[in-house]
Amino acid sequence: MAKSKVAPIKQVSLPRLKLCAALLLARLVKYATNVLDLKKTQKFLWTDSTVTLHWIQGHPSKWKTYVANRVAEIQLLTPEARWSHLPGRDNPADCASRGLSPGELLQYKLWWDGPALLHERQPSGGTTSNEPPTECSMEQRAHAMTNTTPGTTEEHPLLKTFSDLHKLLRVTAWCRRWLLTARASRTRKHSRNENRCFTPLTVTELEEAEKLWIRQVQAVNYKGELACVTSKTPLNKKVHSRP
After folding, report:
1. How far is CA 22 from CA 30, 53, 140, 184, 218, in A?
2. Domain for residue 2, yes or no?
3. Tens digit of pLDDT for each residue in 2-52?
4. pTM more than 0.70
5. What is the chain's alpha carbon radius of gyration, rounded to the nearest angstrom?
6. Looking at the structure, do residues 128 and 44 belong to the same domain, yes or no?
């Protein structure tokens, strides 16, 4: 069984064409495996492109979109297949495309019998260098590395004590009421504020407690911006007030 495909009119690099040929082979193997029920049969696949072989053996995320999509499909279609390199001189697929006449093709042993390695008990590919071909880097996805240093901000002790916002606001509101009552105790309103300590918290007091914490967070995280507002100087253009 054989299958071929005409190269697209749009100019495509040779390594990419070789990768498309490997994808064509993977699809053909998947089809034959399902039709002939060869799911338990060990599969050996070859490509005469060391670049393609290196792409297939790498993770798709390493390559640019064109190569990554095809490598991902090849690995999905042939997860257990063993891919190896076959020298171009032993590739029977090139016989018909290199100008052999019908008479020469009739006597061409490579075309009819395939490469000698197919007749081995345990087929193996040719030796391939562990060093990736230089063409591989052309399709390698660029990775940017950044170093960040987390800023250390001293949190208020109450924030470390209470993990529940509602409880934090209630405690803050009670503390705020006590302070206001203590300040008012020096005035004529002493008796009225003393009775107020035992009444439930109001919505207004909880809202004031929330505003207090908002101002606290802003004072810690927006020191520069608050300084500009206080001194009535323009903010830096790089500062974004919206999230």
Report:
1. 12, 9, 19, 86, 59
2. no
3. 666 777 777 888 889 999 999 999 999 999 999 998 888 888 898 988 999
4. no
5. 37
6. yes
